[in-house]
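Board notes (copied after class):
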Amino acid sequence: MFAKPVPGRTTAAAEGDVVVLLIGMRINHFRGVHHWLPVMLAMGRMLRELRADRSRGLLGHVLLSGSPRTYYVVQYWESKEKLYAYASAPDMFHRKAWAMFNRKEKKSRQHVGLWHETYIVPEGGYESIYADMPAYGLAAATGSLPIEGRGRRAADRLAHRSGAK
């Protein structure tokens, strides 16, 4: 099912700081499918687990491919504390998947590379605009509103403060 475009210009309804996690994998050797496929499948399992329990803090995500070798997910989180709590929770799949990956022999791990980057973007350090688009990215994670709610210019949207009247 395809989302219908929202006519006109909108912006993300995010308030306060935004936590963005970029997490991905790189297939180093295509023939080592039995090494990299479990990593790819583990990400899908973690995303399903997080969607099933919104209290864990994942607001939304976008799956992307940088090349035939590189796949990553842009994730938007409620807070860095909830992100850290999920990553270390003994009852969640992330910890088990990370332990399995680390137990593999070094030679086996060479078939797939992993990476992540975390950004805590303070309010006033982000803005967005979507023109005739379905909710996407930050707007899909936090909701969207007409551009007039934050300002027609990027500078106006960057100046928005959630506590300001």
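Comment from the instructor: The chain is about 35% helix and 25% strand. The mean pLDDT is 93.
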